[in-house]
Design a protein that fits this description.
33% of the residues lie in helices and 16% in strands. The two termini are 13 Å apart. Strand 8 and strand 9 form a beta hairpin. The chain is α/β, with parallel strands linked by helices and 307 residues long. Helix 3 packs across helix 4 and helix 4 packs across helix 9. The protein has a seven-stranded mixed β-sheet with strand order 4-2-3-5-6-7-10, sandwiched between helices. Strands 1-11 form a two-stranded antiparallel sheet. Strands 8-9 form a two-stranded antiparallel sheet. The chain is built from twelve helices and eleven strands.
Length: 307
């Protein structure tokens, strides 16, 4: 079985009991508890991990405002809010494993880098995440989605304009391969969390990445929303629009972010799942993601047999 989601903004910290490590998930562009998307993920994990605690961190009180937060806002401000919120949850004090869907994976990685005094991420799984950015505005699955249509309109006005950068979430991870000067000088989010700005490289961000016990990068085989699809695996275009894989990126070679260190220590898994963007395969999720990246951070007695 597969299920497909729109874009959205949600987090779900999950725990069997306060003394154990817990999993957490973030999805962008949907409301926190949509039963057909993040609510389904919650039920799926609860069905397979006994007594699991699930908490949704919302960026806004109403469903509509929470959904809009996946399109509009300043990502660093959202991260600051989530960092403060997660510190108040006692069940998360020992850390958690995390799943990020689409741009939620990028923001969870940024959480690991920026919230070093908060609950730490042990295992991070990202599905269809633009770690190196996107070369075009993400497509709208729902042609009537006003938020998505407005986001694309902002892109057309100029993704690197200051007023667009401070309004459009997606513009903050737009990486124009043929305008790297504009990307590095005007993008207010991605080049910083990727440690690509020479004058702003952060040892804290690198330490946050190196603290991960596992980073699982899931790419969709028929990806069309994240362009190029290789961005899910830290690959990207060069100026001639040729794909440069992770190992040949300067970010990796000089290890600005700690990704090379993770990989050379066996902490990065690159996985492929069939289907298009956010067409999650339930069997893959049940039999690969849950046992290898979520259940393995809990006590064995907390994990039920996978169905």
């Amino acid at each position: 079985m597969e299920w497909q989601w729109s874009s959205g903004t949600e987090w779900y910290p999950l725990a069997s009991r306060p003394s154990n490590t817990q999993p957490l998930a973030w999805k962008q562009g949907d409301s926190c508890c949509n039963p057909n998307s993040m609510g389904y993920i919650q039920a799926l994990i609860q069905d397979r991990i006994q007594d699991v605690f699930v908490h949704s961190v919302q960026l806004a009180l109403s469903d509509d405002d929470d959904r809009s937060a996946g399109f509009f806002g300043v990502v660093f401000d959202q991260l600051e809010t989530v960092c403060a919120d997660l510190k108040t949850i006692p069940q998360l004090k020992n850390g958690f494993s995390a799943i990020g869907f689409s741009q939620g994976g990028l923001f969870l990685r940024a959480y690991a880098e920026t919230c070093l005094d908060g609950p730490r991420i042990h295992n991070l799984v990202t599905f269809g995440t633009a770690h190196m950015g996107v070369a075009d505005a993400p497509k709208c699955r729902d042609k009537n989605d006003a938020n998505c249509l407005l986001m694309r309109a902002l892109f057309r006005n100029g993704a690197y304009l200051n007023w667009v950068q401070h309004r459009s979430v997606q513009a903050q991870y737009f990486n124009d391969p043929q305008n790297q000067e504009g990307y590095l000088s005007s993008n207010i989010f991605l080049p910083f969390v990727n440690n690509q700005v020479a004058s702003k490289k952060s040892s804290q961000y690198k330490a946050g990445i190196q603290a991960l016990e596992k980073l699982a990068l899931v790419r969709f085989a028929s990806e069309e929303t994240v362009v190029p699809a290789e961005s899910s695996w830290f690959g990207y275009y060069d100026a001639d629009l040729n794909i440069v894989n992770m190992e040949n990126q300067t970010l990796y070679i000089e290890d600005w972010l700690g990704i090379r260190w993770l990989n050379e220590n066996g902490r990065i898994d690159r996985l492929t799942q069939g289907g298009g963007h956010m067409q999650i395969d339930e069997s893959f999720f049940n039999n690969t993601i849950i046992p290898n990246y979520l259940a393995n951070t809990l006590l064995a007695s907390d994990v039920t047999e996978l169905k």
